[in-house]
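Field reference: sequence -> structure
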Amino acid sequence: SDHGEALDDRGVFSHQTVYQEILNIPLLVKFPKDGQPEKLPDTVDGITRTIDLLPSLVSYFGFDSRGEFPGMNVFGGDTADYALAQGYLVHPKDEDEARPTSEPGSHFWRERAVKTKRFKVRELEGKAALFDLQADAGEFVDASADHPELVAELRSRLEPLVESEQRARNVQGAPIEEIDEETERWLKAMGYVE
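Structure field:
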């Protein structure tokens, strides 16, 4: 799977949130006998992202993927220092009548987060909350008042990570298809297009 699922966790049925139950998913890889890369331990204990799968697999099959694809070669032992997550939350009491839109006053809240191995800053409606993922894996206690400098440092990484992700999505040479207004509105609301 490429994401978890919120099954009424925090009052939400969705996979568009940036909580750990959505983001922290296992990846199991079964290598052929005697085929596990030398540098790869049995467990990768670092930040890995879905975007890292392609360069990792290309490299595994003997091709040099450096600079060709966004992401890192986790099979070669590389992991990220930071990871970005973006999502949209539907206000729970308006869920039945909500339609995706990026217009102010809509039923959707834009949400994003940047995380390190230990900490995550979650930004919603311009407000930030900091979670210590080791001490509070469920993300229930906002520790931002105790670590304002860490909140500022992690928030400063949000825009560069968003820009990097947008560049990665704009694959050169990909055909551009016309889409209708309704589809475009949905794609904008989900963060797929601007």
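Note: The CA atoms of residues 112 and 123 lie 5 Å apart.
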